[in-house]
Amino acid sequence: MSRIESARLRWEDGVPVAEAFDDFYFNTDGGIEESQHVFLAGNQLEQRFQALASRQTFVIGETGFGTGLNFLLLGSCGCPAHQPMPNCTTWHLRNIRYL
């Protein structure tokens, strides 16, 4: 089994920067607002979660976990993984590392 490497980052004005890419993890003017607009609203996740039928599968794919901000914000829009659901039997979190 290979060893998991921690991300190398530095902080600039209170925002994490990925050293491998010299890039900010999220907008320096408001990461939460950016994720809410682009990820949650842009994908209409609240409406789509509300429309889920019992035992229906819903998959979200991301190519990187980053700070986990998108994942954490799922709870604010009614993501079934963040609520008790008697018909929900499995929740998977997968991450694809950059190549």
Describe the structure concisely:
This protein is α+β, with helices and mostly antiparallel strands and 99 residues long. The protein has a domain at 30-82. Helix content is 22%, strand content 10%.
Walk me through this protein's architecture.
The two termini are 18 Å apart. The protein contains three helices and three strands, in the order E-E-E-H-H-H. The chain has a three-stranded antiparallel β-sheet with strand order 1-2-3, with no helix packed on it. It is flat. It has 99 residues and is α+β, with helices and mostly antiparallel strands. The mean pLDDT is 77.
Write a concise keyword list for the protein shown above.
3 helices; 3 strands; 3-stranded antiparallel beta sheet; single chain; 99 residues; alpha+beta
